[in-house]
Write a structure and sequence with these properties.
Six copies of one chain form a homohexamer. With 316 residues, chain A is of the alpha/beta class. Chain A contains nine helices and twelve strands. Chain A is globular, with a radius of gyration of 19 Å. The complex binds calcium ion (CA) (12 copies). Chains A, B, C, D, E, F: This is Formimidoylglutamase.
């Protein structure tokens, strides 16, 4: 496009500072046989949510938020320069909701099988996508321990609503894909779960840290202990970040908001800390509904979650 | 409605997990001679506000927010199962604002007189409703010490605007319904009050804790000391929770928002702590305007305030 | 609740003028064996929409809008006093979208079978609900001619997305539930349909009036001719009102808005006119998404659509 | 402020085209004994509204909207250059709603008594202000015929809610300030009034034109006939413009919106026409709530209503 | 991307009906030496606006709106299948506003010089972009008659604010790029212009049709007469569509909205009519600010304006 | 205006408590030769922003927010009573953006030269205004050390975008107006700056404290050390408060929001602390865009920033 002065492709005529690399510029298109340190896949499924949710729009919103930030982590003096392969999004069917879980499973199986990247970022969608993702991950890449950041257990029974965003970890446990001891839930809050599901978690040997415990012990201390433990009994560690682990003041764009949650600085520090462990290999970010968010604040936090993960890996 | 498949009453065709009890399900209709541990009454008056306020819509919004949360307090392993009698709302006249204070007083006198419940929840409305509520409470149930969470003294003169949301505690003091020593104000902030009203508070012997003091000493330490003191000289303790005690980031739906306030976790812990004292018998929640709130965040905090109170009583 | 002064049930403490009957007051609860002139059923399904839609919230929003209007049609000097049986809403499953069409069909079959009312109002939901409604209506009550107000044909193929809001009339035609000659589409606009679906409509013998034709001939002239024709070859006439037949300025709360549509006065006059024909027995109102509406404008028009229908019947 | 380069008073550093006069620039401050062709007074009372209303903010919003428009009416080739004395706003008490009607009456009595201007513009506020305005107008300036543009009769009984925005014309009739024959209501809609109030209007001899009649006969034909009639039996004609006479698409910022109303071009042409009659001497504009308006659209129409009135007078 | 099941490029995993062509699918990327019937260029400049304007976001919003509509004009039975070359956007400098006019002129000169397309669509930006566009058009392609749809003359003096959105046609006239007789202004409204600029238009021989005239004569009659006249004395006709020619109810997203404007159906019919004349060769669409629009309504109208133009050409 | 009962100037008919002084009441108009302790000047320039910004509206929004707060700092028992001279706003040209920097420089040079006040408050506008302000300040009043609260370095190169909000401190350094050792940047965050600009800061000897450091050491400890250091080598200290130093939860109305920032209580305490040093003589507040703010939260914090500064001076 060199012949015409000042012309840029549609939507690309935006200010460029020659010395600044936007985090979004790290994204590159996927090609067969290409490999890289990081890969990202969009999982735009939210019709499986119990409550009304536009989380299917989150993969786009989070990618867009990466345009707002640079690649430089001044606090540790490191510039992130590794490319992130953007595989794209998995296509969802308008009415076959249950089949969409199969589609997610099939697409992610194929993607993980490529072994194209060392670190996998999955952008939901609602939390139901984690079932397909973790199942495919385990089958293709080996056993997996899970650190779930969440206000909720997500261990509901399947009879009442099928595979919703309230059931992913129940399904993984019931189908024997993971063992209860391989699941750590951090940030569980009062009045966000039924007693029976707490009991179920206990019966299954799930490790649960409430927000009160996080405040008392500190997130990084919890992470240190649990990651060490999980790393000994599983091949990989998978972080599942339900953004509603944050207080509503810090993540106003989640469907199930409430007070008493984590602040975003704590979460970001925790992700930075966790990613420094070599076993940590994948992370999903779920439950952001951009249609109800305020100034994309929650997607902005999500983009920081990605960057802190990469900062952690760059710090190793 | 058993003959017709899938039919539910209008508005009730919503997802139900068989193991989950929503906090709102604890509400039951009032009937003469019925009694329970908790009772709730809506006081939808806000035309008495100095600034434009839709706080009259708050009783509905807070009840609705109870639908978003469960009855299980995992941090202490307790399920809340005591019913809450919902007395309903007191009817307000469109133009007779001053008469509405009388209506509140009359209705609440009748309600308190039933002695139907052990713990009274009053949902404002603006803060002017506390005058009627506390006066009726004292006349029907005995003397009362007050813990007021608020950025403001609410001790304005009556001459300039009549019985507004700026005057409830002035009226109570001037009419001898309470004594200054029986009033504790917590969370008072800079630049939210006139010097003369601070001086008035001092002259009356009101105990005042500013936000700086709350940050320095801690809310629970303050509550412990003051509840013990009040319990000795009054029959009951009444919590008056003006939600603008919270910072604007945590309670965006109050008419008089500002920075420098309390965070919601601190408030919730404080209510949990206070409610464990047997003298604490009533609580009003005021100054939430759902028409300017963001995603009902402030009503959501209010519903948690109720739940933390009940958690406190359940912990006794 | 006579013992306590000023007390009203929660949410009912609202101003009441003794001489004014709100349209919403005409709604009464359904009971087995009860019968009336009108009946209303909520069909809260919108996960079947191609685009993101909160049309499942519309039954509640439309009922609520009836509270804003009275029962008096001054232009014809008639007060609407016949009760409307509110059957309630049909319960939808969170993830079994296709099964929800069966649920709608089953519930409506049972309801129509009661023959409890003379005129049936169905509140969607997205337009996919019309398939279940019309199929059940025909099976229970006899053959049916359809007047569809819509910017779109809704004759898409089923292969690409299953039973979405783009397919209800295709399904009815393909399954032989209706014949093409029994379907009249009014308000079809440029650039809102594919050529192939226009061709399909022509092949099936569907009668199509574009907005240009509506402007040229007038809506009532079209209705007079088509209702007379349909009344001769079918037992009943069913109005299917997709609110996106209106211009975006008049119905901002539909998912698929655009310019060049009908104004609301024309539609309201048309409904009034059509309902005066004795064959007209049912009407659905679909494709209102209250979550994106402006001041519930679109639900307000919907409530007027109901009232104009009743005014038509009252004028007979 | 000539010594400091580029300095302007706070809020006045806005672009000024040397050849353009903004309509707002016609406003001048009132001083005792000053006189002019036009005068404007703000009546910021809306706590008297039946429904929640911020109409008290309308005087400011309408004045501000005058800044968006120029003083030149190209269609008749006339520049409006007569000044408009801005008397200011009458101060309302926060809780003494009924006393505020007296305040309006007293303030307006004093203002009308000055006879400072030939044409009076009153900016509400809700419609209850018209009672005080018309009563004071008649007592100070002589008998008055009223053209009321409104979807509603505003003839409710006083017992149920006191002097609300539903009662101004009832009060005027009952207190004998006006006679039913002197009141013309234009734009009355179906389902916006109770039958009993229609009957009351008929009994009192009020002249009522529904929207159907306006569409059939035309607004200007109605105005011509009624203004001529009123001019013969009263000293002055007073226009009372409730903006909800407009369809919700054209006046989204009124509390009581609905479909089927007038379009704004028709209203503006009608005001232009009416103002050309020498008997027309005053106009109030009421029922705009800027807090729920969209881009101040409704206040923008109001500013045009003022300008069309002045254009009418300039055309005489 | 055939190896991985269900994978689509980021943002492209959206529902596709095999028989439907979205209007946006007609857009193709520009390549040197490529030619087509239509071309589109984005001109994202709005810092030149007198009032605060985000019109620079409109090119993206209008392209996106093309995704909401199909390519089939049922009213004339024609499917639009000609491709539209999307040249992209011209890059604007953050602070060199006046230089940006030069950039627009240089880029458009290069683009017009390619003679790559028969019909040019220019997407503003504010109206100041028309100066550069028309100047470059004339220099590269021949003399030009202009049909300007606008509530405003845009003939302000240059001294007070430089080359703003108030001055494009003044600049064109003063620099002799066009002659007054070659400029037709349609839709001018009262109170939107200063008298001096009306006078200037008259002195320059500009033809002006106010909205009153449009309503009286009809838009198509005006267009027929003026296009015939212009076609005789210029080589080409250029349509300049300032969306604020529409009433605020139909185009809520323009910076300078007001009542009394054109409805969108009239404008769309006019564009369809005008485009059928062979002299009409270019069209700009300006003054849409997506940041203040409601549900992209105004960009939706703009996308229809493009489609109606193409429908006109397809009807020739 | 004593003759007419209840009349107040337009917009001034608001509730007044006789004992309460609003902070806004401290503002007084500027007159030549007048002097006071504080002065305030509005700098409404934001067309110089890299991203779309309405920061030009902030001076008005911040002044208005002062109306929400009183003059009494209860925590230190001091009433602020010193007047603040409101010089007004500097007028900006619509299209001559670069010239506007000169206008700011000229206007502020004249204002500083008056030496009318002891403490200068500058209300931006975007951060580009600080260049003109600091340059003029130094030339008129002496050398200056700067404490910049900001998430960003604002040391971008000038070639790519001219004098934007990304360059003010680069310009000051490059033109030798300040030395790198005189600049302290507090609150710099990860992913908000390019590495090259961090390096530039280091090369120039700028002192940088990241948010991690602020959390570790504490803001007041940093301020104490740096103010002491700067006070030794410069005549005055100038605080430059970019509100995006705050976390997005506390300052949602800044153009460049993100997580991980400072909370507002920390900032307010820091300003109070800093202002107690006698060298601190000026403060600008920039980067608030009221058009995207939520309930003016960010302008409310800004008004508190002013009040805390004054509280600091009153505590000396
Ligand atoms: Ca979850
Ligand atoms: Ca969750
Ligand atoms: Ca209070
Ligand atoms: Ca308060
Ligand atoms: Ca449809
Ligand atoms: Ca449709
Ligand atoms: Ca009225
Ligand atoms: Ca009315
Ligand atoms: Ca223009
Ligand atoms: Ca224009
Ligand atoms: Ca900055
Ligand atoms: Ca910054």
């Amino acid at each position: 496009m060199t012949e015409i002065r000042h012309l840029r492709p549609a939507g690309k005529a935006i200010f460029k500072d020659r010395y600044t690399t936007k985090a979004k510029e790290l994204l590159t298109n996927w090609l067969p046989r290409k490999s890289a340190k990081y890969g990202i896949i969009g999982l735009p499924l939210s019709k499986s949510s119990i409550s009304y949710s536009g989380a299917a729009f989150a993969p786009g919103a989070i990618r867009e938020a990466l345009q707002s930030y640079s690649n430089y982590a001044g606090e540790i003096g490191i510039e992130l320069t590794d490319e992130i392969i953007d595989f794209g999004d998995l296509e969802m069917h308008p009415t076959d909701t249950i089949g969409n879980h199969t589609r997610l499973y099939e697409g992610l199986s194929d993607i993980y099988q490529t072994k194209a990247v060392n670190n996998w970022f999955l952008l939901g969608g609602d939390h139901s996508v984690s079932y397909a993702s973790i199942r495919a991950f385990k089958e293709q890449l080996g056993s997996v321990g899970i650190i779930q950041f969440d206000a909720h257990h997500d261990l509901r029974n399947m009879e009442d609503g099928g595979p919703t965003n309230g059931t992913p970890f129940r399904r993984l446990l019931e189908e024997g894909i993971i063992d209860g001891r391989d699941l750590v839930q951090i940030g569980i809050r009062d009045f966000t779960n039924a007693k029976q599901y707490h009991n179920y978690a206990m019966e299954q040997g799930v490790t649960v840290y409430t927000m009160a415990t996080v405040r008392e012990i500190g997130l990084n201390a919890i992470l240190e202990q649990e990651i060490d433990r999980l790393a000994k009994c599983t091949n990989h560690i998978y972080l599942s970040v339900d953004m509603d682990v944050l207080d509503q003041a810090f993540a106003p764009g989640c469907p199930a908001i409430g007070p008493g949650g984590m602040d975003s600085t704590t979460l970001l520090n925790g992700i930075h800390f966790a990613a420094q462990h070599e076993s940590v290999k994948a992370m999903d970010i779920v439950e952001i509904d951009p249609t109800i968010d305020i100034r994309n604040m929650t997607s902005r936090v999500a983009s920081y979650v990605l960057l802190e993960y990469m900062k952690g890996k760059a710090s190793m």
